Amino acid sequence: MDRLDRRILSILQKDGHISMARLSEQVGLSLSACHRRVKMLEADGKISHYAARLNRKSVGLEIQVFIEAKLVSQRRENIEAFERAIHEMPEVLECHLISGEFDYLIRVAARDTQDYENLYRERLTLIPSVAQMKTLLCLSTVKEFRGFHLPD
To answer: Distances in Å between the alpha carbon of 3 and those of 9, 11, 24, 27, 150?
Structure first.
């Protein structure tokens, strides 16, 4: 991956809807050369998909919650059971296996605290491999992920 590929990726992260003509202008390549590079980046898996970034609050998801989860053990069946259950919950935006006191860090978006409480009581606490959970309510977002910084 060279400097031009990194520039293409940086631009596409900011505006995945940009036309190929405008992208080629911004990168300084011919339209066909730029198109070829984008297709290669897609084929190589560096671009996994394109999507619209929604404004969470404007679609009614007022709160964001982070949950630390500790499993009863790190046995394969407990890990697999937990991960299967998490995959079935559309409210879960992200789930990361982490090091430290807890095993997983989960990010959830919910309409309000009652909506989150329902998820917590009716779904999360019923996962049998979970020993402990700690909820962290996000008060405000200081910086949100908008793409990777790709150094030259």
So the answer is: 10, 12, 14, 10, 9
